Amino acid sequence: MRTKLSHFKFDLPEELIAQYPSQERDQSRLMVVDRKTGKIEHKIFKDVLEYFDDGDSLIFNNTKVFPARMYGNKEKTGAKIEVFLLRELNADARLWDVLVDPARKIRVGNKLYFMDEKGNEILVAEVVDNTTSRGRTIRFFFDGTDEQFRDALKLLGSMPLPKYITRNSEELDEERYQTVYAKEVGAVAAPTAGLHFSKELMKRLEIKGTNLAEVTLHVGLGTFRSIDVEDLSKHKMDAEFYSIPQVAADIVNKSKEMNKRVCAVGTTSMRTIESSVSATGLLKPTEGWTNLFIYPPYDFSIANSMITNFHLPKTSLIIMVAAFGGFELIMEAYNEAVKEKYRFFSYGDAMLII
Q1: Which of 325, 244, 318 is nearest to 34 (CA)?
Q2: All domains of the chain, ordered by start, with CATH?
Q3: pLDDT > 90: what percent of the chain?
Q4: How far apart are CA 175 and CA 192, in angstroms?
Q5: Is the pLDDT assigned to residue 91 strictly greater than 90?
Q6: Among residues 254, 239, 235, which one has the least CA distance to residue 315?
Q7: What percentage of the chain has pLDDT greater than the value 70?
Q8: 155 vs 90: CA distance, rounded Å
Q9: Could you tell me if residue 127 is left (phi over 0), alpha (psi between -120 and 50 degrees) or otherwise beta?
Q10: Is the Cβ–Cβ distance between 187 and 62 less than 8 Å?
Q11: Is the pLDDT of residue 221 over 80?
């Protein structure tokens, strides 16, 4: 039984961490892993068309990333402070949970000033609480409307690329670190398996009769937080908001009842659907908060296939993928990916597990 963190360690050369996306969304590489036969094939992402037919369903997470990384200056000293917006706690009071860096300089009562590129003051915030070692609750002071406040955050913020992308955010990231079907604003990280889908590819899937179901899970940093315990049963995930509309449940359940292929596009879609299963094993429409952590052994109820990127060693993401695909097969596939120089992480290549 693979319930130890150390089982999910593997050697990953740094040069395989993708710093930029592929030139075209659907032109990244695709590894296809067959759970029944153990066969591993190498394709191009747009070849996913070959694996889906009339009546099958794909489940997409339609969350939209907001520009969550901001830089402010501390009162008096003027020290530059990174403020990473996590989630809005109270819209009326403009209270937010954030991460600050360097955290040792930021205490309750400190004020932070946010300027535009010309040095004009746009927002002021006060630290009102400590939540974790780097976490703070801050209150923004702003006299305008909610819409004007959102515009100010958008002006000051940048696309929150993960830390392992070592370059600064660029103009291309505004488009490419967002899925083509992103709608519901609220994520601080992209559901990266979906980044491979172009509008043309989605249209071709629909023409084949494949159903596209949309759910929402606002990806928080907890998805990427390191696991600090060897015994996986003791790891606690941060809660993330999710929503499954009736129309999505109907699409998925119809495919299930017809014994068709149901594919979760990404680990966040998988966590969403596994968080709301009826007593009869069908998908239930609902909304709420989930802190579900999926690790082996786990009985999956909804999806019988999965699209995912290649993930970091010893993370909740590779652990979930191993629970779905089978530990030995997935670790073999990862070794193959390193050997064949697949690109890893958010802007990397993809895997289809069938």
Answers
A1: 325
A2: 5-65+173-353 (3.40.1780.10), 69-156 (2.40.10.240)
A3: 77
A4: 13
A5: no
A6: 235
A7: 99
A8: 21
A9: beta
A10: no
A11: no
